[in-house]
Write a structure and sequence with these properties.
By secondary structure, the protein is mainly α. Helices cover about 55% and strands about 0% of the residues. It has one domain: Orthogonal Bundle (Cytochrome Bc1 Complex, Chain D, domain 2). The chain has helices at about 1-10, 15-20, 30-40, 40-45, 55-60, 65-75, 85-100. Helix 5 (about 55-60) packs across helix 7 (about 85-100). The structure holds heme C.
Length: about 110
Amino acid sequence: MIPLLLLACAAHIEPAQIDSVLALTGDADAGNQVYKDNCADCHDDDGRGQKSAILPDLIPANTDDDIVENILAGPSIMPNFVNHLEDQQVADVFAYLRATFGEYDPSLAEE
Ligand code: HEC
């Protein structure tokens, strides 16, 4: 039951929505501002603000799709941003996360 309850808090995201964010060219500098305005309260400027979501570890361990889906949907405690940020802002903050915390490295991916 508990996983179902947690899922109920997350927005449902269609794969096409993730694709349309990833089709955009993100601007990491603009994304830095989006991050400060929307994410740093919880994740801190260095990405280490949440014990359950240490971004410097999570970003390289996750695929592009997974990260964008997490931002749009809000995994559980984290709010969803699907109706709060424009696709371009999500693309920008995604570019910022990759530039700051690293590209996807499959050897770090969780099972
Ligand atoms: C209210 C606090 C809060 C805010 C605001 C927030 N997050 Fe999170 N974030 C969390 C928590 C807590 C988690 C761990 C998963 C969960 O419990 O929701 C998380 C997880 C994540 C993950 C990793 C998911 C995974 O498990 O791989 C990413 C990426 C992420 N956040 C990015 C962002 C970005 C980008 C923003 C701003 C647009 C943001 N977060 C705003 C609290 C927050």
